[in-house]
Amino acid sequence: MTRTRSDTESDSPEQTSTGMRLIVPLQGIVHGRGGLILGSLIPCALFYFLQFYLKRHRSPPPEKPPPSSSPGNSAANLAVFPRTLSRSSLSVRGSAGHAHVSSRADSIVREDDSPYYVGLDRVLKDRYDELKNPNGIIQLGLSENTLSLDLIEEWLSKNLSNSILGGGLSISGIATYQPFDGLLELKPAMAGFMSQVMERTVSFNPSQIVLTSGATAAVEILCFCLADHGNALLVPTPYYPGFDRDIRWRTGVELIPVHCRSSDNFSLSITALDQAYNHARKRAQKVCGILITNPSNPVGNILTRETLYSLLDFAREKNIHIICDEVFAGSTFGNQEFVSMAEILDSEDSDKDRVHIIYGLSKDFSLPGFRIGVVYSSNENVLVASKRLTRFSSVSAPTQRLLIAMLSDTRFVEEYLQTNRKRIRTIHSLFVAGLKQLGIQCIKSTGGFFCWVDMSRLIRPYSEEGELELWDKLLNIAKINATPGLACHCIEPGWFRCCFTTLREKDIPVVIERIRKVVETCKTI
Amino acid sequence: MTQTEETTTTGGGRGGGGAKTAMRVIVPLQGVVQGRGGLVLGSIIPCALFYFLQFYLKRHRSEPDPEPTPPDPPAGLHRVQSRLVLSPRGSGGAAHVSGRANSVARQADTPYYVGLKRVSEDPYDVESSPDGVIQLGLAENKLSLDLVQKWLAANARESILGRDLSISGIATYQPLDGLMELKVAVAGFMSQIMEKTVSFNPSQIVLTAGATPAIEMLSFCLADAGNAFLVPSPYYPDLDRDVKWRTGVEIIPVPCRSADNFSLSTTALDQAFNQAKKRGLKVRGVIISNPSNPVGNLFNRETLYNLLDFAREKNIHIISNEILAGSTHGSEEFVSMAEIIDSEDFDRNRVHIVYGLSKDLTLPGFRVGVVYTFNENVLVAAKKMARFSSVSAPTQRLLISMLSDAKFIQNFIKTNRERLRRMYIEFVDGLKQLGIDCMKSSGGFYCWADMSRLLRSYSEKGELELWDKLLNVAKINVTPGSSCHCIEPGWFRLCFTTLEKNDIPIVIERIRKVTES
């Protein structure tokens, strides 16, 4: 019952969520243990106190500032000086105030940047450049791939003008209103690209594709569609640091971490899922689905066919959804086979409506600046709703025209994918070998732009604090921006994500040398 | 008390909207506590209601799903591994979508959207489909696309991948709230559009993928779920979706009347505000569009000052949608809220301007919107939220060079205004021949036409009947006033900027058929 009480007391900041939680825990009582009497006595008492509280506080001005923001707001209120009504005459209540923002905006504004964002910011201000800024910070924190941009550039310089306004295309094809969920011609091109990326093991239906401005928007749209405010998604940790913002900020959906451990190579166990699920149920939280990344970001491993099947079984048993983020599907470099959730579904007809795939061109096609994301779903309701929601994040038409031409050039795409994979593989093995020289091990990974690096040997104390200290040293002494595990909600301290696909081969010795400096200071302590 | 009762009963039945329902349960109680009922009544009634709710839940608890609780998987049946064996419960559970998705997916299209769909299925074309539906429903301007086309043909390639630009300027991650170069260019364009009466600070700009997400973002920032905005009606039909769908914010229409030329009165605002307060709704701001969409009139300086006074008195925000600022065609002067704010320094933090390139630069396909705000907190939050709707980099590069081409822009603005004015005059004249009068308007792509004379019954039903006739008999898609929440029946919005000059006689002829019948 402690929980109910604390909810009641913190009542006004977020009335919606509070109200909902007020009802939900009661149901637990009704359903099982307490029975009717207890279940009605307690809320009566609580209500009495709540109203007593409200009664006492009713005299302050109607614009009661949301408590969550009280320190800042009261400070702001102090700054308000009495002002006159516009054009000379005095306003009676003019001094009333500083215009308040919503409490959700307030919490976004006040949210501290995690080390992930702090690091990215630092790089922006002082980026390494071999010639112009050799003492700048080297970026290993952003999962971006610049290894094969030369191929894209070459294609663009040949075909750019024609693909936007050339051939049979007219100005009204790019300037006027287009369908918000993507051009009809781009969807088949995208479906073709996706199946090409997955080596033709699956085919995608263009009519199940919804295009969005980046995968970020795609994730958010799916969350709006699958969960209501206050519901939750299970997410295996370590997970991609952006999810917290993508999901929690505007949808009000919560993330429940499902911890994976180094002893299992950070692979997902159904037992852990089940535990997290039951735990959430006990707290009367409704779990609406599971969110996975495959290949995993930040670990870089791939979910096996077996795991995918058990995941589907689990989702079916609990009657929940699966969101499968496959943006790295084409950026694999090991010999392990990538299996898309779409392929699993082909053989499991009855579960089509609970699986939703996220894709995009930011990773596999190295075009994050283009902002192209994909929601792929077989669920009719989700499709209708997300198509309607794309009014808030649709893709610019000139970019779509460009991509139609680019993706339809299958010979170019094939060559690009092959070359790109080869280049990722080369740089990956160089980078891992470099780290090994320093005695630093990585989890064996087969996809993605990053290594998941074990530096636990270098941290002291063995805790979050020690990890942050090392991160700080890497950033400020070695001038390297890596993402610490805690930004990814990793439960074991000392793990770091290092992205290597923005490096050139000749940068690797520089990076390794810089890390060596820190490794040596750690040893001498 | 009726409201309390009603919400509590729905609380038991509905699947998805748990959060919303519960909220309403609490809010009306506050009314009781704060005022009339006092403590005793305020606690006995909810107690009794709770008792009944729980009784209801208890009785229905064996039912599989519709409760607002997590769906209870019936425990009895266990299932074997997938593949091979058929799952005994496999067909049982359809995966449920969220309550909000359900309401978005199920929301019936208003005549506005029905009409747009009809046009996309059967568009008029002089040669290939002369019996198709003529579009007068979409606020889009095609009058000056030839100028844009000419510019693009000459400069597109150079501006995306030109001499000083490299592939990494378009392919890699860029600031999600827009390239600084584009912000500077847009600020310049905005002040040029407003005839240099105001200057805009590029660092107060957040770029979004269209004005639609700009409005949604501001709603997220200024109001919490369950709060409300006051909006003078008639207002443009998309606003309901933009503001309400995902943010959970409500719109309270403030009716304007033909007797006042549909201009906004502070009295009406005040009334709506007080009514909302009585209903326990917290009003967080006023949303206006200036030039108004769908009426096409401009807010004069006096009204803007009054509005600001009102907002200050109530301590609420103002969102001023000025996306049509450059598409004026009358002699009346357009005054931006930004100009008013220049002289009213203390109120800067409550004024937010929405702009975009869809109307004034006639490029809706490019999806470029602007949030312009003086409020530091809103600026920070909006920049962070831009991750969900940022503009594609190639498009941004294209626009940087287009907007920086001062000669082109100047020529475009001038020519476009002239064509707009000519088209407006001709279209209004045509309607006049049929005895149909329009509100005098000085901005926008449309006329706000009074067809109340043609209604068979002076009611919303009569209006929809006429709309249906126009769509199916005359094959003309117009937007009925009811889609814009106009309280007087018989008004229609007719957009004329997608027409070509020689289409006008055809449109008038088609309308004549209906007026005669």
| Count of individual beta strands of chain A | 13
Specify the structural class of chain A.
alpha/beta
User: Which two chains share the most extensive interface?
Assistant: A-B, 136 and 133 residues
Mean pLDDT of chain B: 86
Outline type of chain A: globular
Q: Report the span from N to C terminus of chain B.
A: 50 Å
Helix content of chain A: 40-55%
Number of contiguous helices of chain B: 18
Beta content of chain B comes to: 5-15%
- Strand content of chain A is 5-15%
- Find the structural class of chain B using helix and strand composition: alpha/beta
**What is the radius of gyration of chain A?**
26 Å
Number-wise, the strands of chain B total 13
Helix content class of chain B: 40-55%
The end-to-end span of chain A amounts to 48 Å
- What is the number of helical segments of chain A per DSSP (H or I, 4+ residues)? 19
Walkthrough of the structure:
The complex is a heterodimer of chains A (525) and B (517). Chain A has a seven-stranded mixed β-sheet with strand order 2-8-7-6-5-3-4, with helices on both faces. In chain A, 46% of the residues lie in helices and 11% in strands. Mean pLDDT of chain A is 85; it is low at 1-30 and 58-95. With 525 residues, chain A is α/β, with parallel strands linked by helices. Chain A is globular and about 75 Å long. Chain A contains 19 helices and 13 strands. The relative contact order of chain B is 0.12. Chain B has 18 helices and 13 strands. Chain B is globular, with a radius of gyration of 26 Å. In chain B, helix 1 (2-13) runs antiparallel to helix 2 (18-34). Chain B has helices at 2-13, 18-34, 38-59, 99-106, 111-121, 145-161, 168-171, 180-193, 211-222, 239-244, 266-278, 301-314, 337-343, 376-385, 393-404, 406-433, 460-472, 504-516; strands at residues 134-135, 205-208, 228-233, 250-255, 283-289, 317-321, 351-356, 369-373, 437-438, 446-450, 476-477, 479-480, 491-495. In chain B, the strands form three sheets. Chain B has a seven-stranded mixed β-sheet with strand order 2-8-7-6-5-3-4, with helices on both faces. In chain B, strands 9-10-13-12 form a four-stranded antiparallel β-sheet. In chain B, strands 1-11 form a two-stranded parallel ribbon. With 517 residues, chain B is of the alpha/beta class. In chain B, helix 12 (301-314) links the parallel strand 5 (283-289) and strand 6 (317-321). The chains are: A alpha/beta (525), B alpha/beta (517). At the A-B interface, helix 2, helix 3, helix 5, helix 7 and helix 8 of A face helix 2, helix 3, helix 4, helix 6 and helix 7 of B.
